[in-house]
Structure formats: C-alpha cells, structure tokens
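Blinded run. Sample ID left blank on purpose so nobody reads anything into the name before looking at the predicted structure. Input follows.
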Amino acid sequence: MPRRTRGAGRVQALAALSVAAPVLVLVAALGTRVGAWPVEIGYDLLTMQAGWFLAFVGAAAALGALVLSLGNFRKLGMVAIVAALAAGATLGGFVWQKARFAAGPAENISTDLAEVPGFGDLGDVRRGQGPGPAVGVEACPGVLPVMRQVAPTTAIYALEQAGFTLRGAGVGRADGSREGFWFGVDHDAVIRIRPGRTDIRVAARDHRPHGGEACRMATAISETLRAAG
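Blinded prediction complete.
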C-alpha cells in the first residue's frame, strides 16, 4: 500500500475550500436561471453576500495550503499554487465587480429627460422597486438622440443589434427586452420616433446596480441609429 504524503489531506481540504466561492456563484446562477429560487436568493444572498464572504475565506485557505505545502513542496506545491491562483482570481473578481457596480451610472438611461419615453406596453411588469430616476448624457456620454425621424425598420435593427428581443414596433416607436445570461435580470428599451428627433431609453426592471449595463446598451442603440444615416 503506497504511503500517504504527510499533510496531503489538509492541503487538499484547504484547496477545496479555496474554490468554494466560485462554485457557489455557479450554483446560484444556474439555480436562478432554472427557477429553483428567485434572484433575491441566487444573486443578493448567495452571490453578493455568501459568495463575497467565501472569497475571503478561500483566500485565507489558499494561503494556509501554501504554508502547509512548504514541508513537501515537490508533491503538494502544485495543488497549493492552483488553489492560490483560483482564490486570488475569485477575490480579485469580486473586488473588481463591486468597484464597477459602484462606478456605473443609474440603470435608467434616457436621451430625453424633459419627457422621458415610457414603457407603457409593459404595464404591471415594471411596477415595484425600479432603478430610480432616469439620467442622460451627463452620466452616459454616448447616449445621444438622433436629430431626425428614423424608419421603424432601422429602430428594430438597432434594438436587435444591441441584443434585445423585439416586443412590438410601429410608426412612432419600437420596444424590446433583454434578459441577462447569468441571473436573468431584465432590461427594457424603447425607441421613440418623432418628426425631427428620435429618442432612446434603456432601463433595468430592478433596483440593483449592473455596472452601467443600461448605458452600454443605450449607447450601442444610439450609435447604430446615428450610423444608419
């Protein structure tokens, strides 16, 4: 029977703990996507609270694995190094994501703040705790109105190019929605078409920060519309 490497069990246990956070986030995201639990559990609780805590625990565990592996680094060092890299990447990813969320503009972007385009067709779907008042070009420099009346087909194309699924379109407007990949967070978009001006609005349905996702999508729509000539 081969002799067991001294300390291998502890190093392996600490290495397993070092990847607990990303595993939890993956389970949380998959569970939310398949409807096993709501986003309040999958994202708010499991990811942003429990996952954030486990990221620190994992970093400490990886450091412990490195220390323990020094006694037999030739056999245990690779496991400890992989654990340290995984834990460092996880904690760094959390820190980067939280900083990005804090720096991003509100998830409610409009090219017209005097008469903000509405999502009238959604009715009760958008009622509740939303992203707050709309912000414009000062917060999201790329979201510019189109100073002409675009064709409905152009508006539809711009929505689809930005990843939105079309909900409806007519002479005066085009509406779309986009579901996020990981946690199914919804953003809605409307392109309001009037003589001499076309306005854009993109807004999340929830109150959570998403790192300026609405700004990026609204900018993409604006750029497509303006490039259409």
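Unblinding after everyone has recorded impressions. The CA atoms of residues 149 and 195 lie 5 Å apart.
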